[in-house]
What does this fold into?
Amino acid sequence: MTHPSLPITHHYLGIDFGTSGARAIAIDSGGAILAEARWVFSDQTAETWRAALFDLIGQIPADIRRALVAIAINGTSTTALLCDADNQPLCPPLPYNDARAQAEAKQLAQIAPPGHPVLSASSSLAKLLWFQKQPEFPRARFFLHQADWLASLLHDRPGISDYHNSLKLGFDPETLRYPEWLLHLTVAPLLPRVLAPGTAIGPVTAEIAERFSLPRGCLVRAGTTDSIAAFIASGANHPGQAVTSLGSTLVLKLLSRKRVDAAQYGIYSHRIGNLWLAGGASNSGGAVLRSFFSDARLEKLSARIHPETDSGLDYYPLPKPGERFPLNDPELEPRLTPRPQDDTVFLHGLLEGIARIEAQGYRLLQELGATPLESVLTAGGGAGNPAWTAMRSRFLGVPVQPSSHVEAAYGAALLAARGENLLCGDTSDFQC
It folds into this structure.
């Protein structure tokens, strides 16, 4: 007796390593979410990352794991570690915000071109130069970003990165090669091979396949950073589309036909296929709002605001002195006075002030040559505030909507599903 053949089901897994925890999302070929898993970090050690990775994969139901075609991982930008010939960490990893490499950043200022993304104490390259001075360095064979190392635990081919994670290591996303000045450094032998995000690196090892009941042909793809995975998750794919993240800070990302770099404003562009993702981050954002109001109070007061009217207040909301973008002034004072007695009016002024900063940021990106703004998708906690959304649309002069998906793990899952084709690009969008 014969049976009609059943359709083959393909599943894809994206894993996001963020600042406070990790998340995994499995999707089907149509992008529907099949399963999710979470892990909260107790610390940021390599062993914790390894445990989190394996636990997250194990949390995905076995029937979904058995149909996994590909896996992609994103990590926090510039989080990096040094490994020996067996791919074992030689010393604790340096997180994205570790700025101990001050002396190395000054050294790079004498080598790298002005305004280059490596010219920061927290850049990957500054960290590599700092590692070079440590007693463990002579045993080093691999310098890897967080996403690189975690992926290598699955495919066992250490020494491979992607051009998103490697931007602040000095890799040039326009020429797709390391510049000559970098190749002349003594640390050059440790530089990873760089692939386009989504490129197939190789299948999972036989050990990993057996341990997690994965198909032997399940591919591990080159990853990306957490912020770009979140952008991919949003659904934005056309020049002029942007994503604003309204979290503790205000982060803008605009998909552009032209590369925009302006180090004096903290602006740099990531390659997205044949397009560019230009962005900047303001110190304004949700942290200021939460310093005055609880989430419940914010929701209650926001419902009373008439977003089509002006508050009459001229605030520049900052949690403390100092701004990066769209103004570059490390001593800029917050402007939060006068404060009205009515908290609704006060909140109206705060939301309006942040909306003005957002509009000023997108104007600056366009003045520097980015594609004109057409629409904005919103991620982060502020995406669910209708009054703020209407207010921001009024200041921006373009439609503003919530992102279709806000989890970076979902963006990583899309990268696993579509591979480098997700980012190949043409003149209208970055999907093929």
Notes: Residues 1-7, 425-432 have pLDDT under 50 and may be disordered.
